[in-house]
Amino acid sequence: MEPMFTRPDAPFRPADEALAVSEFVRHARRVLEGAFPLGWISGEVANLTRAASGHLYFTLRDSAAQVRCVMYRSRAQLLPFRLEEGLQVDVRALTTLYEPRGEFQLQVEGIRQAGRGGLFEAFLRLKERLAAEGLFDEARKRPLPPMPRGIGIVTSTAGAALHDVLVALERRAPHLPVVIYPSPVQGADAGGRLAAAVAEAGARASADGIDVLLVCRGGGSLEDLWAFNDEQLVRAIVRSPIPVICGVGHETDFTLADFAADLRAATPTAAAELASAGLMLAAQRLSRHRDALRRLALRRVESAYETLDRARLRLRHPRERLARQRDRVAALAPRLDRAAALRIERLRARCGLLGQRLGHALPDPAAKRIVVERLGQALSASFDRRLTGSQRQLDALRAQLGQLNPDAVLARGYAIVRDEQGRVVRDAAGLMPGDLIDVQTRDAQIAARIETLSAKGSKPGPQHD
């Protein structure tokens, strides 16, 4: 038989064996999540619902299709803008299946506004041109040193990003030296000064004892992060003799510096964690497992919240339910009255019929008395016959028992002979002259000694003392 599924991770099942709905939907969800990794999808927001739990439910659509989306509270509260219907957005989402309803949906991790005017168009044009030059190619990017000697940081000394990076490095790798190359991260000339700081760090890397460079700042709008889209900075990152980690903004923020860097970090703190991975490799693995477990638990909790939200939407007000039940009772009352009357009439008719049958079934005592007397006479006669037969049988058994009585045999002149051990002598083969024997007759017990022995029918021989 052919297998039901052909994927290598799917269980083998015969083609004619049925799957439970829950098992089928669970398998479909795994296939969807494995086939469509986390990515960006663009569309218009419609049918937006803000649940009491803090989750966002909406439809992402374009002119030809639409898909249901859910953004859980933990993600929704990090949005830098208010999501409204009709807004054109890019969502970073995981394709999944909501198992309780069998509903295909997107689980949204982040949202950014699409179509940000001339600035965004300039970003796209510059990105396309630099990508055509191969500046963003994955093949040219270098791996991070597993055990860095020191870490360089290009950022503003007045920003919170530097504090976050230093705290993370102090916690994870306090032994590593840190060199700061200060530069403004926002403003008209910030891009050029950031590029100069990256170039200075690369030139002094050997003397300063650093072999990995962090370029970072905190989150902000597209305008706030524009310095990190500067072409000079992109080219300086590409020319850097040491690997560069870019940690700009939040997880949903992307700049051209992110694409040019050897490694992109979601936040400045994440950049520090990636740079100090050497001695913390085992701890990072444990942290990843812990984070995965936390995300799984959060996802289950959020899925339960979603189920609760959907159930809450289906709940009816008690007043409405009572009104419906009252109408139903009013409709059923006449039917109940008719059914009760019909049942009473049927029971009355049945009682009359049973009364007639009872009258016909009354017993006749005189007839029954005659039957009882006849049965008594038959029983007495049967008892007498049985007693007479038993008496005859007892007499016959008594006569047979009397014939088998040894005393009766002795009375006819026979005797019982026993040897010295008291055993009955049945023949003379075991006896010798001089043996003592005991002879029992009907009325005496005789002790004797054998003088001679002779075979049956022969004459006794001479006696010897």
Automatic annotation (TrEMBL):
Please name one Pfam family that this protein belongs to.
tRNA_anti_2
Q: What does this protein do?
A: Bidirectionally degrades single-stranded DNA into large acid-insoluble oligonucleotides, which are then degraded further into small acid-soluble oligonucleotides.
Annotated OB-fold nucleic acid binding domain ranges read 20-111
Report the locations given in the UniProt record: Cytoplasm
> What does the record note on quaternary structure?
Heterooligomer composed of large and small subunits.
Its source organism is: Niveibacterium microcysteis
* Family membership: Belongs to the XseA family.
Documented EC number(s): 3.1.11.6
Which enzyme class, named as a word?
Answer: hydrolase
The record's catalysed reaction(s) read:
Exonucleolytic cleavage in either 5'- to 3'- or 3'- to 5'-direction to yield nucleoside 5'-phosphates
Please give the superkingdom of this protein's source.
Answer: Bacteria
The identity of this protein, by name, is Exodeoxyribonuclease 7 large subunit
The alphabetical list of record keywords is:
Cytoplasm, Exonuclease, Hydrolase, Nuclease
Q: Where is the signal peptide?
A: none
Q: Per the database record, which ranges form the Exonuclease VII large subunit C-terminal domain?
A: 135-448
List the NCBIfam families hit by this protein, alphabetically. Answer: xseA
**Alphabetized InterPro entries for the sequence:** Exonuc_VII_L, Exonuc_VII_lsu_C, OB-fold_nuc-bd_dom
